[in-house]
Design goal:
The chain is mainly α. 49% of the residues lie in helices and 11% in strands.
Amino acid sequence: MGQYVLPDLPYDYSALEPHISAQIMQLHHDKHHAAYVKGANTALEQLAEARTKNDFGKIALLQRALAFHVSGHVMHSLFWQNMKPKAGGQPSGDLGAAVTRDFGNFDAFRAQLNQAAATIMGSGWGALCWDPVGKRLFTTQIYDHQSNTAMGSVPLMVIDAWEHAWYLQYQTDKVKFFESLWNLWNWDDISARFRSASTLALGLDRAASA
């Protein structure tokens, strides 16, 4: 059975300073992200055991654990790649045009995504997603790692709003953390994800076969 693997960071722990401290990056990646990878693999092993024994008494619990931990792994992997040192600015090309089309302008998009992250009740993520059905960008609030997600949408850019992402450095001012991330966004990575996602077709408009 395939195992989920913790990816290496694409930069040193201190590379995103002063916006994100080396201490936070090390704890966030090596402890929190690693725990989601371990949890995902454990859930897979327990599901395999349940199939072997034909005992699905804990299926709801195991499915919930699998969704939580796999989604945590995916979201964190995206977050690391969405950022790079000395980045920021605004997207250009097709992504920049899509942001203007779907949000009016870049500043409106930035404000909407920040507010989506800031107003999550409890733990979760703010995200820029591509909707292959409506063929448009939208922001979403992702509670925990996976709930309240529009099925079929593809996350392109994510803001970690869990306390472990910011509290040691920003304490109660999480909005300041969200603002600081705009100095780090890797628009090359996000644009590449947009180009890939925009080719996705769910086939919902196909005529029913006879």
